[in-house]
Amino acid sequence: MLNYICTCCGRKTPATTREPVCSCGGLFELDYTPPKWNDEKIDRKEWSIFRYREFMALDGDSWREVSLGEGLTPTVELKPGMFVKVDYAMPTLSFKDRGAAGLVAHMKSIGVAECVQDSSGNAGNSVAAYCARAGIRCEIYVPEGTSPKKIAMIESHGAKVHVIPGSRDHCADVCRARVKDEGVYYANHVVNPFFYEGMKAYIYEVFEQLGRIPEHVVLPVGNGTLFIGAVKALEHLHQSGAIRKFPKIVALQSEYCDPLYQARKAGKDDPVSVDVKPTIAEGIAIGKPLRGREILDMMKRHDITVVTAPEDKILAARAAVAREGYYIEHTTAANFAAWDRYCELYGPATDVLITLCGAGIKSDH
């Protein structure tokens, strides 16, 4: 049986619990170590992230009733030395589908019938879609300013949407208050460790497709779901001896919302309190990342560089990528603006992997 371990007090709790966090208030981690990486353990007959299930913490075969064929997105050399992973080529047009598949598979396995979640849009849409597939009732809380098209997609899956005035962080507070007051299951992509199990497949796919990991990996960081999942998978490959060298990770934040950038700059262990300004990179506009300490620990452990995406460069980056054939959303464009910024600061670099997080049609607002 799988267990959680509290990141604060170290107490073990069965992963069947309906509680979102430890009784002490600490966040859960999974008490799980994947087996050593072995290509032969990939189920090449399964066309979803669950082809890597031998390396994921899963309880039973509930994933079979949940998967929508997520993952296995193309990894394309956009131009010499720049690889893009076309992650919007997934069921809900977003990279969050990997994590949602892992999370909802767990929910299905323990008999969850209804849930709530807060999101800036993409994660909410993913969880709504996978809950629809699994037959789980779902309500999503989104902050005002969320793309109307994202809201329409969430509602199309049968989920009820609550639009909350104020910031993304306030939206989360409102949702968590309901979880506390009513005891409804919190299907949150940041809090629940099973989401990260799905996100690990991002790296496993690249490694299977290219036979290696590029020297540089660009990862957007708001709440850090892709960042944490990718780092966990890279650590797994590195510890297994499958890759000899850990890649140089370039983490990025919006220059209008940069609590982790400021913390890294000041050498602090916790996110810095910042004044959040409106940004078109809505997917990473997180002023108080719940797993900030965990993210900063990973950054310190692997000497990860954090840069900010210049707000006035995002739309130009979006247009430039569109002219190469990929119509991406604003937050995805921030990845390219931040990579350009990194090269300005540290010199030209090549052999880089950048994710195309979401489709452009989702952020036309």
Describe the protein.
- The chain has 365 residues and is an alpha/beta fold.
- The chain has 3 domains: 1-31, no CATH class; 75-93 and 194-363, Rossmann fold (3-Layer(aba) Sandwich); 97-186, 3-Layer(aba) Sandwich (Rossmann fold).
- The protein is 35% helix and 16% strand.
- It is built from 11 helices and 13 strands.
- Strand 10 (216-220), helix 7 (225-240) and strand 11 (248-254) form a beta-alpha-beta unit.
- Helix 1 (97-109) runs parallel beside helix 2 (122-134) and helix 10 packs across helix 11 (330-346).
- The radius of gyration is 19 Å and the shape is globular.
- The model has no long low-confidence stretch (mean pLDDT 96).
Percent helix, as a range, is 25-40%
Mean pLDDT, as a whole number? 96
Instruction: Please give the largest β-sheet.
Output: 6 strands, mixed
Distance between the termini: 46 Å
Query: Strand sequence of the main sheet, in spatial order?
Result: 4-5-13-10-11-12
Strand composition percent: 15-25%
CATH class of the largest domain: Alpha Beta
Count all strands and give the number. Answer: 13
CATH topology of the largest domain: Rossmann fold
Detail the poorly predicted runs. none
Number of domains: 3
